[in-house]
Amino acid sequence: MSIVSRCVLGSVLTLSLLPVAEASMRCGTALVYEGERSVEVLRKCGEPDQREVTPPSSPQGGGVTVEQWMYGPRNGVYRYLRFLDGKLVEIRGERG
């Protein structure tokens, strides 16, 4: 194995050991992270300024409930949260 191959392999192995970054959002003194349940987000942040709920598309229970929440603007930023079956899967911020 060449020295360049070893360096590349070492870099790839090192990067694979780094933790995956999770998005977070501050609510007062609390932090909300992707993966949290909607009840925890409500407890930490209160009711969102806007909420849209899309029930499962299959009446037989084959789909998931999707919720889109919006907080803001706070300090000029809107925060958009997306939940799948009550689990926070995305936190996105946009300047207003």
TrEMBL record:
InterPro entries: DUF2845. Residues 47-66 are annotated as: Disordered. It comes from the Bacteria. This is DUF2845 domain-containing protein. The lineage of its organism: Bacteria, Pseudomonadati, Pseudomonadota, Gammaproteobacteria, Pseudomonadales.
